[in-house]
């Protein structure tokens, strides 16, 4: 008997569709969350469990391979410059689209349901006292084990970089440590592949819970916002990122093709962490050096959130338009500056886009209470911005590799060709 062996992307899509069906059928039934939420949480915990060991070991190996503080400093500067340019462009594009299409104009707030955002408000109050300066200071860990237990990625990256330089500096004595780090990274990538086999089940559970809670009908009153956000995300990826990729001798469609499985998984789970290890692997196969992929991807998760900043700009103007508040050109320029600073100041905070908006809206005279009207559909919007964040960070690896002059075009073409040649596998078996 012929058996069709589906790829990971196909299985995840099947899980997504089944989850939507179950959520829609049992809309409003609390039992859906009771039974499915633990399954989704277990999947996300499995992913989070492996992220730090992979990032740490890969960074140590990559930095030890570079072994040059000056070269590493150049790599860091180029990455940050690129991150800031792309984030600023994303904010400006978001503001332009919101000004052109006015998604918040004519919205009847009386017909919208409000969600409780007190948890985000408390988080925003906490981080607003820290600010950008404290975030920079916080990059240097005072206790590595505290950072590891809290999952604070920037201090972990900082220590891994310093440790990798130390391993390179001691020469022969550092080789056993380097071998250990290589072994850890290879073992953790094997674990990643095993965990990914459960991704369709995790996606099914997470989507089922989401749809059962808000219902598909909740999208109708805010349909214009959803369409505007999704349209702007597609526009940004195809046109803006497409131009950037072209300028650096690459093709954004090729990058999307390489990341097909990861994009579907990131979109359906609304979590960039679920694909972080696989992005590093994929970008290395696509021709980027391991040292650059292992540095740029984790750093970009804190500083290069193109999808999030694009959404924040649209959401800010949406709420202003909903309240009938006209923002002058000066006010919108101020919004760009505040969003640029705030989004970096609270990198890594859960619900970062919501927290950024809460910390930003009040400073430019927009009622923060307006966020309660869109909190109910935030998961749907979060899915789109997560996918864009993934593409943006993957493109950053290619750009920095090209900028450094060490991108392997031939390796990238061969990997792309191997993906094109992959077909649905048919396994002949006996019943």
Automatic annotation (TrEMBL):
The keyword Membrane applies. It is found in: Cell membrane. Pfam families: SDF (PF00375). The keyword Ribosomal protein does not apply. GO terms for molecular function: symporter activity. The chain crosses the membrane at residues 12-30, 42-67, 79-101, 153-171, 198-220, 226-248, 323-342, 354-375. PROSITE patterns: NA_DICARBOXYL_SYMP_1, NA_DICARBOXYL_SYMP_2. One of its GO terms (cellular component) is plasma membrane. It is a multi-pass membrane protein. Keywords: Cell membrane, Membrane, Symport, Transmembrane, Transmembrane helix, Transport. GO terms for biological process: dicarboxylic acid transport. This is Proton/glutamate symport protein @ Sodium/glutamate symport protein.
């Amino acid at each position: 008997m012929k058996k069709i062996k589906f790829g990971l992307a196909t299985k995840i899509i099947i899980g997504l569709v089944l989850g939507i069906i179950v959520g829609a059928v049992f809309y409003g039934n609390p039992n859906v969350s009771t039974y499915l939420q633990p399954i989704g949480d277990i999947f996300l915990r499995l992913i989070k469990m492996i992220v730090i060991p992979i990032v740490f070991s890969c960074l140590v190996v990559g930095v030890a391979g570079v072994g040059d503080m000056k070269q590493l400093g150049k790599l860091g500067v180029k990455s940050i410059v690129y991150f800031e340019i792309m984030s600023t462009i994303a904010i400006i594009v978001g503001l332009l689209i919101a000004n052109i299409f006015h998604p918040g104009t004519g919205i009847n707030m009386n017909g919208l349901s409000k969600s409780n955002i007190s948890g985000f408000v408390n988080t925003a109050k906490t981080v607003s006292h820290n600010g950008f300066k404290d975030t920079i200071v916080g990059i240097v860990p005072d206790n590595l084990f505290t950072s590891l237990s809290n999952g604070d990625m920037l201090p972990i990256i900082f220590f891994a970089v310093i440790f990798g330089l130390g391993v390179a500096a001691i020469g022969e004595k550092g080789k056993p440590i380097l071998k250990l780090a290589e072994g850890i990274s290879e073992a953790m990538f094997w674990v990643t592949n095993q965990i990914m086999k459960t991704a369709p089940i995790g996606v099914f559970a997470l989507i089922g819970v989401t749809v059962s809670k808000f219902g598909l009908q909740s999208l109708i009153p805010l349909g214009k916002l959803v369409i505007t956000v999704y349209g702007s995300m597609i526009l940004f990826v195809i046109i803006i990122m497409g131009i950037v990729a072209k300028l650096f001798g690459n093709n954004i469609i090729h990058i999307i093709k390489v990341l097909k499985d990861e994009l579907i998984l990131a979109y359906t789970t609304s979590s960039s962490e679920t694909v972080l290890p696989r992005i590093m692997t994929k970008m290395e196969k696509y021709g980027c050096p391991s040292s650059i992929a292992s540095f740029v991807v984790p750093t970009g998760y804190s500083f290069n959130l193109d999808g999030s900043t694009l959404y924040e700009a649209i959401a800010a103007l949406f709420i202003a338009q909903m309240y009938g508040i006209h923002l002058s050109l000066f006010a919108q320029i101020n919004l760009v500056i505040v969003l640029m600073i705030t989004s970096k100041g609270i990198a890594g905070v859960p619900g970062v886009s919501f927290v950024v908006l809460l910390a930003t809206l009040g400073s430019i005279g927009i009622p923060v209470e307006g966020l309660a009207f869109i909190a109910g559909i935030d998961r749907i919007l979060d899915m789109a911005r997560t996918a864009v964040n993934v593409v943006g960070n993957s493109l950053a690896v290619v750009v920095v590799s090209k900028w450094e002059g060490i991108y392997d075009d031939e390796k990238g073409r061969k990997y792309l060709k191997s993906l094109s040649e992959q077909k649905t596998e048919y396994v002949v078996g006996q019943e």
